[in-house]
Amino acid sequence: MKPANRLAFIKEYYFSKKLQEIKKMQQNGIDVINLGIGSPDLPPPFDAVAQMQLAAKQENAHKYQSYRGADELREAFASFYQRKFQVKLNSETEILPLLGSKEGIMHISMAFLNEGDEVLIPNPGYPTYTSVTKLVGAKPVFYELKEERKWQPDFNELEKHDLNKVKIMWLNYPHMPTGAKAGKTVFHDAIAFAKKHDILLVNDNPYSFILNDCPESLLAYPEAKEVGLELNSVSKTFNMAGWRVGAVMGSEENIQHILKVKSNMDSGMFLPVQLGAAVALNEGEDWFKKLDLLYKNRRTKIVELAKKLNCVLEERDLVGMFVWVKIPDAYKTSEEFSEHILQTHHLFAAPGTVFGSAGEGYIRFSLCVDEATIEKAIKRVEA
Ligand SMILES: Cc1ncc(COP(=O)(O)O)c(C=O)c1O
């Protein structure tokens, strides 16, 4: 059967293909250490799992659930945003639970984009912004993030372009894959820019609590709700990526538009999963301290590994669950270097170009691997 024309503009997700190749190597007896994927390997909070199990025994647990998510989950997101970001949100009208933040990228695009609209997308950046933009018939317009600007958008440069067709601007701070934090004025400048050009600003914020001394929300800035939305999820913060729970936060009017799309696509989330996630969102400070220490230790070891591979590190804080480094001069492209370490050391790390052309010359190591495995990787390289 001939697929829809829209499929001609997108490719199978890089990791979907690459992981098949790695699986084949493993089936052939090669012990590949996968440092490519950002899927937390640690357990979720114990009490969240216990709540999920308990809720599965409730009589009403197995019915269709509300299109707007369970009250408990919306209230937990509201209280989380109040405690962590000092952002006040109405849990009835300004929060819409989602199946992870990834789902929100599609719903927001469906709700706000017409064919031919333009979308500002960070390069390098999360590939889903681009593929979803293409799937809905809109046009990606990339804004380059550069190391010399600490991976921050250059609004003066953007102002030089015709912005009449731009409808959405994706921001993603803390930024994946570079691990950059938003600079002091970025959210402020982005809001002014979005207001001036009538652009919907969306900050995708799933990494705010990983190795970050100062978590921030776009919505904490004045007038943000007028022009902006934020996505967040329990995937990285609470090691619950497979649960598929996130939310979009913003003005009642914008949330209503998204609900119009979402309520036509799914029929609610499994209640026990929502109630378990609500418990996670109420975790105390100990949870965050423990996670921070663990990732710090892993990061130290990954940095050691990267140095052993002759990669070059920038002088800055790395936020989130990745270490983003320059490949050694001896290699022409990120893919060549990634392939080299895969074939020589049986280590897989994601070439920077997976995240766009501006990722050329870089490679991304994930922190979702335990310390013993990273030590094993280091020993392989030393050998
Ligand atoms: C930048 C970015 N946004 C969104 C997601 C999706 O996360 P979620 O599990 O919340 O859908 C990811 C996952 O890797 C990501 O890196």
From TrEMBL:
<dbReference type="InterPro" id="IPR004839">
    <property type="entry name" value="Aminotransferase_I/II_large"/>
</dbReference>
<dbReference type="Pfam" id="PF00155">
    <property type="entry name" value="Aminotran_1_2"/>
</dbReference>
<keyword id="KW-0808">Transferase</keyword>
<dbReference type="InterPro" id="IPR015422">
    <property type="entry name" value="PyrdxlP-dep_Trfase_small"/>
</dbReference>
<keyword id="KW-0032">Aminotransferase</keyword>
<dbReference type="InterPro" id="IPR004838">
    <property type="entry name" value="NHTrfase_class1_PyrdxlP-BS"/>
</dbReference>
<feature type="domain" description="Aminotransferase class I/classII large">
    <location>
        <begin position="31"/>
        <end position="381"/>
    </location>
</feature>
<comment type="similarity">
    <text>Belongs to the class-I pyridoxal-phosphate-dependent aminotransferase family.</text>
</comment>
<dbReference type="InterPro" id="IPR050881">
    <property type="entry name" value="LL-DAP_aminotransferase"/>
</dbReference>
<dbReference type="InterPro" id="IPR015421">
    <property type="entry name" value="PyrdxlP-dep_Trfase_major"/>
</dbReference>
<dbReference type="InterPro" id="IPR015424">
    <property type="entry name" value="PyrdxlP-dep_Trfase"/>
</dbReference>
<protein>
    <recommendedName>
        <fullName>Aminotransferase</fullName>
        <ecNumber>2.6.1.-</ecNumber>
    </recommendedName>
</protein>
<dbReference type="GO" id="GO:0008483">
    <property type="term" value="F:transaminase activity"/>
</dbReference>
<dbReference type="GO" id="GO:0030170">
    <property type="term" value="F:pyridoxal phosphate binding"/>
</dbReference>
